[in-house]
Structures are given as structure tokens and as C-alpha cells.
Amino acid sequence: MPLASTGELVTAAADTRSAVAAFNVITLEHVEAVIAGAEPAGAPVVLQVSENAVRFRYGRLLPLARAAVAAAERATVPVALHLDHVQSDGLLRQALDAGFSSVMYDAARLPYADNLSATRAAADWAHSQGLWIEAELGQVGGKDGRPPLDAHAPGARTDPDQARDFVAGTGVDALAVAVGSVHAMTTRTATLDHGLLKRLSAALPVPLVLHGSSGVPDDALVAAVAGGIAKVNVGTALNMAMTGAIRDFLATHPEAVDSRKYLSVGREAMAEEVRRIIGVLAR
Q: For residues 202, 191, 22 and 115, what is the CA-based torsion angle, rounded to 10 degrees?
């Protein structure tokens, strides 16, 4: 079917107090696994390509993006394409011609005033091109090899009053909020501040996004959706599933050299994790 719109999927989820799952993809196996996991559930999904993934692919966006578009158009469920954690304005401007309906512009590392100014400019450009735009306020952290973040340290979490001003001042369509999750967690031990999430949901007129969801326990994810999260980003959980399955396969098949043998095992493990996470969000 035709590519879906991220904005339409997230808005529909927010309207029904549910959440759409958004999975970060790095290889074609990731793309295929996400779709294979979503189809049995009949659930829409978002395929996300991050700036880090583009950097890994020799700085080229189009090869992975075009593969994702081709796979999405053959899916039996709605699939949208989202450009994630963009810091480069040059990369931002490639989104339109690569099949993306949305971008997440990440200036959260900057002081508040600079984040607001940069995000305002990015949102103005995105909207002029018909793109839906997400931003981040607060410190989710855990990316780019930075030291571990205390997600509950003073100033790390998103302040509702500041968030209200930020959304009004930038015009973004969704906001990723810092409520206790951290990117790249390999244990599911994050503690979310559900009281803060409730206040953010009441204060903001746009859908809320949870980053770092791989580290959040199932019951906390269910509560986060009930509390107002409409888009749940998952990346590390897929990489852990793929790596673990391949590691186990090679340990028991040390003679293996055909990459299709172990990549298919890794792809199926990711698809199963996608099915599991979609099931959790549907509770």
C-alpha cells in the first residue's frame, strides 16, 4: 500500500489514547523485520532512520531510505518513514526527496534559547515542505557514546511550563519528553515519572513521544501510553535481539560462512521483538 503519513498515524493514536510503535532501522533486515512483525497484528508502524544510521551508511541517506520505501509499499499494514534525531540542516533538507513524511529535529543538546531558535527555523522549513516535525525538550541522553545520564537529575526532565512555551514558540507537531527513559539502555530498568507525564499531557496541545523505550518495562510502557504517550520509539531492543540470535547461531554453527543463514535468524528475532512490543502497546 502507499506510504503512510507519520503525522496521521500519531494523531490518530493520540485521539484514541493509544500509541504507534516507531522502530529505528539500520539494515534492510531491520526494515523487513519491522514489517514482518507488524503485519500479523494488523498494526501500523513507523520506520525510523536516524542521523547515526545515515553516518554508518557512509553518510548516504538514499540507499536505506529507498529500500525502506520499497518494502513499505509492499506491506499489508500502514508504514510511514521518519528521519530521526537530525542535527544537520543539510540532512534535514534531504528528507523530502527520500520518502520521509516526518522528521525529528534534535537541538536538545543546546541551551534552551538556542534549541528554541534552531527548532523554530527547522519547523518553518519542514512545514513549508509539508513535513510533520517532532522535537525534544529535556535530556533523554544516552546517544553518541556520551556518559550515562541520571534521567532524574535536576534539569534533566521536561518542565511542563517550559514545554508549553517551547511548543508555542517553535510550532512543532509533537514533542519528545524526558520523563526518566534513556537512549541505548540494554536493561529494562528505567523508572518513568508518570506524574510528570500526566502534567505534560495536560499542558501540551501536541502528541507526546517517548524515546529510549527499549529500557522501559512493559507495565511502565502501558502506563505511559495511558498517560499520553502517542509514539513509542524503539531501537536498542531490536539490535539486542538480532545480535543475541546471531551470536547464539554462530556459537552452535562455528562452520557457518553463508551470511544468509545467520542474518535470517537475526531478522526473525527482531520480528518477534516487534510483535512483542506491539502487543504490549495494544494492552
A: 60
Mean pLDDT of 85-94: 96
Q: Are strands 102-105 and 208-210 parallel, antiparallel or unpaired?
A: unpaired
The answer to whether the beta carbons of residues 107 and 85 sit under 8 Å apart is: no
How many angstroms separate the CA atoms of 117 and 113, rounded?
6
Measure CA 186 to chain center.
16
pLDDT, residue 4, reads 98
**Catalytic site residues?**
84
Residues contacting residue 111 through CB under 8 Å, at least 6 positions apart:
none
Which residues make beta-bridge pairs with 134? Answer: 104, 174
Distance CA 221, CA 129 (A): 33
| Measured CA distances, 254 to 229, 257, 270 (Å) | 44, 8, 22
Distances from the Cα of 237 to the Cα of 1, 274, 277, angstroms: 27, 9, 10
What is the rounded distance in angstroms from the CA atom of residue 244 to the CA atom of residue 259?
A: 15
Closest CA to 3 of 35, 30, 50, 51: 35
Burial class (CB in 10 A: 0-12, 13-18, 19+), 117: middle
pTM over 0.90: yes
CB 26 within 8 A of CB 66: no
Q: How many CB atoms lie within 10 A of CB 34?
A: 31
**Which neighbouring-strand residues pair with 50?**
84
Strands (E), the chain: 20-24, 45-50, 79-86, 102-105, 132-137, 174-177, 208-210, 229-234
Q: Which three cell numbers stand for residue 24?
A: 529505528
Banded model confidence at residue 252, pLDDT cuts 50, 70, 90: very high
DSSP line for 32-61: HHHHHHHGGGT--EEEEEEHHHHHHTTT--
